[in-house]
Please model this.
Amino acid sequence: VESGPGSARERDEGWETARALPLGWTLYVRVPFGEIFRRNARWRLDFLIVMAAVAATAYLVAYYVSGFDTRRLAHLAATMRTVHSGELAKVDIDGSDEIGELQDDFNRLVDRLRGALEERYRIGQAVKNAELQTLQAQINPHFLYNTLDLLKWRASQGDTAAVARLVDRMAAFY
Model:
């Protein structure tokens, strides 16, 4: 590299620049790149250490937060499997975020399912009672006809003691 006014040359520890100024002055600037690079290397190392610490902290926080949410979702899924097997279990609501909303909606669904099952049972009982009453309404006249026919037959046979017992039992039945 050439030397003289307005030229730059490399030195052992950096660059040296000279520039001619008005009035015959010459400005010499020496840039100590070696020192700058040493400081830069130290700053770079400090920056990398800080970034590694920030990244590790961010990873641990993300791991904890995602683990907490994952546990909540796993608990909800386990409770869903319990309900699927027939046991109407609710899940504890442990937040007001999206997972908490899912838990609340699931609990409302379980309540509605429980209500529907109770209603179905009640309707089934009412149908069963109605069928029983219908059957009794059909049986009573038939039973009465058969009993009267038996009494007539016994009476025609002259078995008055058997007729008396049958009439007593029939009176106790009705």
